[in-house]
Amino acid sequence: MNIHTIANHLNGIGDSSSTGFRFDCYPIDGDVEVLQVNVVGREEIPIFVSVTENQVLCISYLWGEEEVNPDSRTEMFETMLGLNIPMPLSSFAKIDDKYVLFGALSLDSSLLEIEQELSVLSDNCLEVIDEMVDFLK
Question: For the residues 89-116, what does the mean pLDDT come to?
Fold first, then answer.
């Protein structure tokens, strides 16, 4: 499994996606191979996919630390912890000064399972932003 296989699958499914979504994928050059996946109609929240030796990692950036209202930061963390378990296939993390939502899959995952993970992660991003808007400036 590599990002090119994933990109070819997602770009090739068009309207026949089992999830009802269409995808546009773009490899990003760098030391680590990364695939930017845009869910058509949700391009403002891309998902970045990388394949490591032991997992397929899907990450979406939500907001930066500078966007968090400092007076409600602790309450935001409590809300994030409360949302972590009931939110399927996604977890919160922080990369540098950016808050992210991520999901990880086995290298043995099928392309259909990866497509489903990306769809759920995209849905979860929208729900999280809607839930967390009161904690942001």
Answer: 96
DSSP at 34: E
Q: What band does 94 get if pLDDT is binned at 50, 70 and 90? A: very high
Nearest alpha-carbon partner for 103 in 82, 127, 124: 124
The residues facing 104 across adjacent strands are: 57
Q: Which residue carries 């990364």 as its tokens?
A: 34
How far apart are alpha carbons 44 and 26 in whole angstroms? 14
- The amino acid sitting at 55 is Q
The sign of the dihedral angle between the CA atoms of 125, 127, 39, 13 is: positive
What ranges do the domains of the chain cover?
A: 3-135
Residue 109, beta-bridge partner list: none
Architecture of the domain whose range is 3-135: 2-Layer Sandwich (3.30)
pLDDT of 134 over the 90 cut: yes
Q: How many C-beta atoms lie closer than 10 Å to residue 96's C-beta? A: 7
